[in-house]
Design a protein that fits this description.
Elements (H helix, E strand, L loop, with lengths): L4 H10 L6 H4 E6 L6 E4 L13 E2 L8 H8 L8 H8 L5 H7 L3 H10 L4 E7 L7 E2 L8 H6 L16 H14 L5 E7 L7 H12 L7 E6 L8 H5 L4 E6 L5 H7 E2 L3 H17 L4 E5 L11 H15 L3 E3 L21 H11 L4 H4 L1 H20 L4 H18 L3 H4 L1 H4 L4 H13 L18
Parallel strand pairs: 1-4, 4-6, 6-7, 7-8, 8-10, 10-11
Antiparallel strand pairs: 1-2, 2-3, 5-9
Helix pairs in contact: 1-5, 14-16, 17-20
Length: 448
């Protein structure tokens, strides 16, 4: 894949409205409407602007509206975040997906309107042991708790507890068995490895003999590995762990409170050793989300994974993930212009890091993230409203988790003017942890 990076970027430029995801992915999760499931094709699709954002029947073919827009050479309103990212010269989820596919797959998409892999993502519940700063109540039960949000959303209920939903999901899986060269079931939480529904579905697949047709992909922080789960995953053709590891050292705990990095590191090493001892089929993708919470520690992150990849050998990929629509005030582009030059210099210096020479294929995605982020920082206009929201949210989260911006994200804090430090202190003094966290915003700064 690495050899054709320039070709893929040119493909994305030549086909500015085409995206791989609606043709090869469906993301299934609970909705706010009783008895209905929600379907997205990517995590950044704005389903509020997506007419068919609910699964209405067993065809699961809910993306015709988006596909029609693409084929008509126009952006669908639900794809607005990618449009804005690309207009600013950034790496959108659309481009990131294109970079993750082979040239022949992109050619097939244009010629055949199909692609040779398919993924059904299933979000079971928000049950989680971490409250990550870039998360939300829908994705984490602990985040929901510390944010003071009442547990009446339904996200804490495992989707497989609903007999109709279970029947819908299992019938859909059966309908796709044998139809794709690579068929993935992507398991998601909360923390995926502790989802009762995930284990239930894996056992159902094995009990019915489907494991020889299926590849498993799961998103996990590796903060916990329940007994027996690795044995179960070894039964499938392949299991790909998408590891949500965004930082190292003390800054990791700040981003993904309250787990320490050493615990995640040990779980990863244990899983690798377990797999190697059994000549297993596990693969690992390190999938960080970079934000204002950790971007100034990206050099430590790259130093760590350079040593890891040198030790572990081929087959461990680093592929960054963008922030979601609702947390744009944490995005690197929210950084005021007056603070950007040191970050631009840091990212520019990292482009010559030995990791990108020694492990080019495994790290091409994060290299591209560096180049596009530098471009965005040079071009993105000041948005002091977003910056204010970042300070407010950071104060809220610091107070609720008993962590300190000035210590665990000191590389950013120490750059701040006295005026911004005072503004942050004022926000800290306003926090009332007994009340619901007050900030949740869409991409265009509209409060929801």
């Amino acid at each position: 894949m690495a050899e054709s990076l320039e070709h893929k970027l040119q493909w994305a430029k030549d086909n500015p409205f085409m995206c791989v995801e609606p043709w090869r992915t469906i993301d299934i999760r609970a909705s706010d409407i009783p008895g209905k499931l929600r379907a997205n094709c990517c995590c950044n699709l704005d389903y509020n602007k997506f007419k068919y954002g609910l699964i209405l029947d067993e065809t699961f073919d809910n993306f015709n509206e988006v596909k029609s827009s693409m084929l008509g050479n126009r952006w669908h309103p639900g794809c607005n975040k990618c449009r804005k990212e690309e207009l600013a010269g950034g790496q959108s989820e659309r481009i990131r997906s294109i970079l993750g596919h082979y040239d022949y797959q992109l050619a097939d998409l244009l010629e055949k309107r199909s692609i040779d892999n398919y993924e059904i993502r299933i979000k079971f519940s928000n049950k989680c042991v971490q409250a990550c700063r870039m998360c939300c109540a829908e994705e984490s039960s602990l985040w929901q708790k510390i944010a003071g949000i009442e547990t009446t959303t339904g996200y804490e209920i495992d989707i497989t507890e609903d007999p109709a939903a279970w029947d819908h999901i299992t019938k859909f899986i059966v309908s796709h068995i044998g139809k794709h060269e690579h068929f993935y079931i992507h398991l998601m939480g909360g923390e995926t490895l502790i989802q009762d529904g995930a284990r239930k579905l894996l056992n159902w697949c094995v009990d019915n003999g489907y494991e020889k047709y299926l590849r498993i992909r799961l998103t996990t922080s590796f903060s916990v590995i329940p007994d027996g789960i690795l044995d179960l995953l070894l039964k499938f053709i392949k299991t790909q762990f998408v590891l949500s590891i965004d930082s190292v050292g003390d800054n990791y705990r700040y981003v993904r409170w309250p787990v320490e990095f050493q615990k995640v590191e040990q779980n990863l090493l244990n899983a690798i050793g377990y797999n190697n001892a059994r000549y297993g089929n596990f693969a690992f993708i390190i999938s960080p989300v970079f934000s204002l919470n950790n971007i100034f520690y990206i050099d430590d992150f790259i130093d760590y994974w350079d040593k890891f990849l040198t030790w572990a050998g081929r087959g461990y990929i680093i592929m960054n993930t963008n922030l979601t629509l609702q947390t744009h005030y944490l995005d690197v582009q929210a950084l005021p212009i007056q603070y950007r030059q040191p970050l631009i210099e840091k990212l520019t210096n990292l482009l010559s890091h030995n990791m990108f020479v020694r492990h080019r294929e495994e790290t091409i995605h994060i290299y591209n993230f560096l180049t596009t982020t530098i471009n965005e920082l040079n071009r993105w206009p000041n948005d002091l409203i977003l910056w204010s929201k970042f300070l407010t949210f950071t104060a809220e989260f610091d107070r609720r988790t008993d962590t300190k911006f000035s210590i665990l994200n000191s590389r950013l804090y120490d750059m701040l003017t006295e005026e911004d430090k005072l503004a942050f202190d004022q926000e800290l003094n306003k926090v009332n942890i007994l009340k619901r966290i007050p900030i949740k915003y869409t991409y265009d700064n509209t409060k929801i």
